[in-house]
Amino acid sequence: MNRISRRQLLGAGAAGSAAAALVGCDGAYKLAARYFGNGLPDSFALAASADIDPDFHVLSRISFGLRPGDLDAIRARGAAAYIEEQLHPEAIDDGACDLLARRYESLHLKAGDIYEFRREIAISELIRATVIRAAFSRRQLYEVMVEFWTDHLNIAHSKAECVWLKTADDRDVVRRHALGRFRDLIRASALSPAMLVYLDGQDNKRTRPEEMPNENYARELMELHTLGVHGGYTQRDVMEVARCLTGWTVRNGWNKGSVAFVRDRHDDGEKEVLGVRIPAGQGAKDLDSVLEIVTRHPSTARFVARKLCTRFVSEKPPQSLVDRTAAAFTSSDGDVKHVLRTILYSDEFMAAKGARVKRPFRFIVSALRALGAETTAPRGLLEYFNRMGQTPFAYPTPDGYPDETAPWLGTMMWRWNFAVELVSGRVPGVEVRHAALHKSAGSDEPVALFPHFVGRKPTDVERAALQDFLVSADRGREEALGLILASPAFQRF
After folding, report:
1. What is the SS3 assignment for 384?
2. Which domain holds residue 389?
3. Is residue 296 classed as helix, strand or coil in its secondary structure?
4. With the C-alpha atoms ordered 146, 147, 152, 153, is the resulting torsion angle positive or negative?
5. What is the pTM assigned to this prediction?
6. Phi, psi at residue 235, to the nearest 5°?
7. Same domain, 228 and 210
8. Are residues 367 and 482 in the same domain?
9. How many CA atoms lie within 13 A of 129 on its CB side?
10. Do residues 328 and 283 make contact, with C-beta atoms less than 8 angstroms apart?
11. Cβ contacts of residue 137 below 8 Å, gap of 6+?
12. 348, 317 Cβ separation under 8 angstroms
C-alpha cells in the first residue's frame, strides 16, 4: 500500500477547497477521500461456502465489518499476518481517514482550548470523528479497542465540563493506550481531567481529620476499571483508596483543564489497601502505590480477561479461554497486544462464528462499510444512533454501554427502518453508489452479494425470501440489499 505523502495530503486539501465551491464542503472531503483510497475497488472476492468463511469471521471480530475488498486483503496476507498488521496500527497508512477527520479542529487542541467551542460543537465534532474513524479507518482493530476501552472507562459528556474535557480524554487516554499496557491506561485515566470531573475526583480532599474523602472514583476504580464487583475488595479498601487519591484537582483559570496535585488537600497518613501497607508521607506517589496494587491483582487479570473474551468471542466465553487470557495478562504485565493474541489465535475464537449480536453502533457502521457508503457523519446520520440508544459518549452511568444482547433487542424495528432508508438514499449525508458496488462485485443480482454481507452463501430459505421480495410489488435490487441488512444473519457477527 502506498503511503500518502505530506505533499499529497496538502495537495488534497487545496483540491478539496477548490472542489468545495462546486460540491459543498462535505462533498469535497468525500471526493478527496475517495481519491486517496476510500472508494470501491475494481473487483472484490465473495465468500463461497455454506458456512461462515473463516477469514470473514476474523475480519468481523477485529473490525466494525467488512468493506468491499477486505476479504481479498486478508487472503493475500494470511489471517495471522493480517492480525499482526492490525496489532501495529502505527505502521498502517490511514491517510484517507485522516483526511476526513482532520477538519475537526477541536480534536487536536489542549483541553483548556476546547472551551472556546460551544458545547454542542465540541461534542458533535468528537462524535462525528468517532463514527468516521470506525467507518473508514484501516486501523480497524485499533478502533474496536478504542470502543472497548471507551466503555470500560466510560465518561458521559452530559456531566458538567465533560462535554469539553472528553475530547482530550479520548485522544490522550483511550487512543494513546488502546493497544499498550493496561497500567499505563488506568494511570492516564486516573489523571484525566474528564474522569476527575465525571467521578468527582477533583472534589476528593481531606484537609481536616474529621473530613471524609469523596469515594466515587475509588469505588469505580476497583468495581469497574480493575478488580470487578466480585474482586475481593471491601468498603474499607474503598475508603483507603479514596484517602490515597485525595489532593488531585482540575485547574480553573490559568492553564484551565489541566490537572494539579495540591498537597494541602491530601491525606498523607498511612493507609492499607487490599492488605498492602502504604507508608505515610508519600504525597502524590500514593496514586502509583494504589495502581500498582490494583492493576496487578489476580482479580483484575480475570475481570479484564472475561470482558475481552466476551467482546471478541461470546457473551458466555469458555472458562478455559478466560483462564488462559488472564494468565497472558499476568505474565505480560497487562500488555494488551499479548492478551489479544491469546484470544484471536485461539480455537475458541475461531469456533464462535456468528455468536454475537451487533450493538447499534456496530450495526450502523457495519452497514456503511459493507455498502462502501460515503459520508462525513452529519447530524442526519447521527440521529439514527440516538434512536437506537447508542450515541458515542452519551451513556449516563460509569459502567458503559452494555455488551449483552438483551438490552438491545428493542432496537430491531429501528434497524430495519435504517436499512431500508440507507439503501434508498434517504439517510441524510450518506451516499451509496449502488451501480459501482454491483459492478465491483461482478453481478447485478442482490442474492449474489449476500455472501459479501454475511460471509456465506444464502440458505434455501434466505434465497427464496430474496426472490419473493424482488417479485412482490416489483421491488428493485437496492431495496433487496436493505432486506439483507435487516436480516437476522447481518445482525450477527
Report:
1. helix
2. 360-491
3. coil
4. positive
5. 0.94
6. -60, -35
7. yes
8. yes
9. 21
10. no
11. 94, 97, 143
12. yes
